[in-house]
Amino acid sequence: MTKERIIDTIQTPRCSIIIPVYNQYEYTVGCLDAIARNTKGAYEIILVDNGSDDETKTLTERDNMRIVRFNKNMGYAKGNNAGAKISKGEFLVFLNNDTIPGEGWIEGLTDVYEQIENVGIVGCMSLYPGGGRVQYAGMVFDREKNHYPLYSNIDARAPAVNRVREFQALAGVCLCIEKNFFHAIGDFDENLDNCYEDVDICLRVRAAGKKVVYSPWSRIEHFSSITLNADKRKMKKNMDKGKAYFYSKWRDIIENDDYIFIEEDRRFIEDHKMKYTDFFTSRDTSPDTPGINAIHREFMSCAEHIKNVRLLKDFVGHVMMGGLRSKGIRRIICFGASESGRIIIRAAEETGMGIAGIIDSNPAKQGSIFMGRVIEPPVNIEMLDADAIVICSTGFINEIRSTIELFNKGDLPVFDIAFDY
User: Fold this and answer.
1) Which comes out higher in pLDDT, residue 212 or 5?
2) Intervals of CATH 3.40.50.20 along the chain
3) Best mean pLDDT range from 100-109, 267-276, 337-346, 347-356
4) Which of 212, 264, 347, 376 has the maximal Cβ count within 10 Å?
5) Where in the chain is the domain with CATH 3.90.550.10?
């Protein structure tokens, strides 16, 4: 770093980079070195030492770095708030110390404010060490309103994680917010201690009418909770307390949105060569054709990147129904009271497809209730008013087909729509 650059940053800091630290000296030095290499323009660094007792104590202030020291660990919220109070920049960039910011990382955050209206807070693409796999690319909420990172561990080149988009929440690895707006919404909530602070402030940004935006233009390698892992017992206690407090504030506000993002990202599945119509309606089950065996391979290669695998199964079930409806099918018989059957029946009900009945060859299942319907024997196929039969099983396919051929007097079309769970 040149003398002229240091002088520039101290005179007109556009961004204040606030880094709370608690021990882990080597990671902090690595982070500071990466900032010096990869950060252009006017910036200052505010290092908040939360009572470190390692070599962190030997770090000293320099032209563009100030240090706030506490004699005990104040935590994420209080530490960042202390740094924000003495900041001089127009933007506050809250950055974990166990990170390696990449080239152009800070412009990848601030440029969003110039290109999108009404932005309230911006987060980066967080990468696992090495930079090839995504750790965080936006946070989503499941049906129980638990948050999790969408597409964690996916290839960082995947189209689904390489477009700017809005979320309800972002991970706190790196967050960029205008200083005046940060103070206007009350800073980080200090009732939270190393848990939910990032999600909480994002929800408050939205409550104030502004956008929470993920930017793939800013890429940062993250070693993940290095400081927190040093004190796991305290972390567990804080998490339990923080979770109760967080949900008392936001449970009625949070929206289940993970399925929305997956529906928007059909291109993600298409990029893995899953062609809907072929996969979901082919009768050919040979390994070399786009039938059921092919969908097994492609589906599982996609599902490994999504924490909520059940959600992706639900989504694919919806696409299946669309493939059948395109063929004029409106009522189906589900052959197989299995987990695959649950997916098909739920997707059918949610998309307006009629269920004529549920068939299973296993006498032990016949007569029992499955998904609110009585499981019937194959002999009843001809009594059911249906447009098609869907095989909801991956095992004994030939035997099932032979059974269907025996009792399918109406010659209904048969589709192998199932998954290897």
Assistant:
1) 212
2) 272-416
3) 100-109
4) 212
5) 3-262
* Inter-residue contact 38 to 11 (CB < 8 Å): no
Report the alpha-carbon distance of residue 99 to residue 230 in Å, rounded. Answer: 16
How far is 176 from 20, CA to CA, in rounded Å?
Answer: 15
pLDDT at 414: 87
What residue has token string 């769970």? 421
pLDDT for 314 beyond 80: no
**Cα(182)–Cα(119) distance, rounded to whole angstroms?**
12
Beta-strand ranges (E) seen in 223-283 are none
215: left (phi over 0), alpha (psi -120 to 50) or beta: beta
- Give the separation between CA 153 and CA 131, rounded to whole angstroms: 11
Only one residue has tokens 């040093």, namely 230
Residue 28 to residues 87, 96, 240: CA-CA distances in angstroms? 19, 9, 28
- What secondary structure letter does DSSP report for 169? B
Reply yes or no on whether the pLDDT at 7 is more than 50.
Answer: no
Whether pLDDT at 64 is above 80: yes
List, in sequence order, every residue forming a beta bridge with 388; answer none if it has no partner: 332
Query: Per CATH, which fold does 3-262 belong to?
Result: Spore Coat Polysaccharide Biosynthesis Protein SpsA; Chain A (3.90.550)
The answer to whether 220 and 124 have CB atoms below 8 angstroms apart is yes
CATH of domain 272-416: 3.40.50.20
Q: Classify 267 as helix, strand or coil.
A: helix
> Is residue 76 packed enough to be buried (19+ CB in 10 Å), middle (13-18) or exposed (0-12)?
buried
Contact, 129 vs 149, CB < 8 A? no
Residue 207 token pair: 């409550």
In sequence order, what DSSP letters do the residues of 63-93 get, joined into one string?
Answer: TTEEEEEESS--HHHHHHHHHHHT--SSEEE
Q: Considering just the CA atoms, what is the radius of gyration of the chain in Å?
A: 27
Q: What is the pLDDT of residue 290?
A: 37
CB 173 within 8 A of CB 222: yes
Q: What CA–CA distance (Å, rounded) separates 103 from 175?
A: 17
Q: Using the 8-state DSSP alphabet, how is residue 161 labeled?
A: G
- Token readout for 395 is 């095992």
pLDDT higher than threshold 80 for residue 387: yes
The SS3 call for residue 262 is helix
DSSP letter string, 319-332:
HHHHHHHTTT--EE
Res 334: pLDDT: 93
- pTM beyond 0.85: no
